[in-house]
Amino acid sequence: MFLENFLSGNQGSAQPPQPAEPSESDQPAQSIQPAQNEAAAQIIDALIADDQNQTIYKSAQAPDDAMLLDAYSRAVIKAAETIGPSVVNIEVAQDVRTRGGIREAKGGGSGFVFTSDGYIFTNSHVVHQAKHLSVTLHDGREVVATLVGDDPHTDLAVIRVWAPDLVSATLGDSQRLKPGQVVIAVGNPFGFQNTVTAGVVSALGRSMRTSTGKLIDDVIQTDAALNPGNSGGPLVDSQGRVVGINTAVILPAQGICLAVPINTAKSVAVALIRDGFVRRGWLGIGAQNIPLNRRLIRFHGLENDGAVLIISLEEDGPAKRAGLREGDALVAFNGRAINHVDDLHRALLELNGERTAELAIIRHSDKLSISCTIELR
């Protein structure tokens, strides 16, 4: 090595130079000054450090693969392993009317087990009007499923299977999501089972119009890739907890995928399991979540830390007839604080036949109370 040659005085194969014969003109040798000693020592130290670095580099040529897994990769792997046993593939047979008559059409989608006794979440557009449902579990078992109920207004459905040793998913809290948070989508696009894609929460509070024309509020936007067959599969956080149900892709765009928040799905599931359908109050508004100014909270004595902002009104809807306007912030429904769109959905689901509601709103900086006649649908 160069350092060894340097320290030993050998420069390649050349012989060390022979001292010249002293002449009368030669002056006496000057003594080496301390500064020269220090400079030489620095050069030697630098060469030793460089030699050690070369050795370390050579020893790191083939690192262990485990060392290459960064925190992001480990989080995605852990989440996929946690949710994987709960994800199912759903095959559907439906009768469709064509110009030549009625024929059977087959389709499919994804879903996930959310109770140990066989209840499964999926999308309404996957199983709506299905005459036969077949579910393939994570371990390869294929079982017949029955439709418990579906709600086209939120594009959610619940089906059920009877099978032992089911692994239920852990449901998270979609209200805790933040833009930029890592999320993982698992499903069966094009029949490829347990396909994992990862991305981030691109935005929250989006609105999406369903096939029935109703707006779903507080939809999660993500760039985790979704394809046909992913519908109904879970969107999970880095801990493998379900925070949304994948439902739609904006086809002309790239990386714009939408999921129904799991908090909305929880409320809908209760009604579907209990009644087989969802009957809810309808206000006729489009809404999104907003934080409330602390000064407004203190001035009006509110119990809220957030509110629901009205961003659109349906023509001839109950809210417009009652005098609500775009830009109003809804803070209470029949005396119950409304911090989030999910709170409003729950309040509308629990009307129990009551048709009139007292709405508390903030308009500009004033607090108003408006009586609204709710339609049940």
Q: Which helices and strands appear, and what pairs or packs with what?
A:
Blueprint: H1 2-8, H2 34-59, H3 65-68, H4 71-83, E1 87-98, E2 101-113, E3 119-122, H5 124-127, E4 132-136, E5 142-151, E6 156-161, E7 182-187, E8 195-209, E9 215-222, E10 234-236, E11 242-249, E12 257-261, H6 262-275, E13 281-282, E14 285-291, H7 294-300, E15 306-313, H8 318-322, E16 329-333, E17 336-337, H9 341-349, E18 356-363, E19 366-373, E20 375-376
Helix pairs in contact: 6-9
Could you write a compact summary of the structure shown?
This protein has 377 residues and is of the alpha+beta class.
Query: What helical percentage do the residues reach?
Result: 10-25%
Question: At the third CATH level, what is the topology name of the largest domain?
Answer: Thrombin, subunit H
Number of helices: 9
The count of strands amounts to 20
Main sheet specs: 6 strands, antiparallel, barrel
Structural class computed from helices and strand pairing: alpha+beta
Instruction: Outline the low-pLDDT stretches.
Output: 1-32, 55-62
- Spatial strand arrangement across the major sheet: 1-2-3-6-5-4
Question: Domains counted in the coordinates: how many?
Answer: 3
Q: How confident overall, as mean pLDDT?
A: 82
Radius of gyration: 34 Å
The first-to-last residue Cα distance is: 85 Å
CATH superfamily membership of the largest domain, which one?
Trypsin-like serine proteases
The CATH architecture of the largest domain can be given as: Beta Barrel
Strand content: 35-45%
What is the CATH domain class of the largest domain? Mainly Beta
Topology order in helix (H) and strand (E) letters? HHHHEEEHEEEEEEEEEHEEHEHEEHEEE
Shape: globular
Note the quaternary state here. Answer: single chain
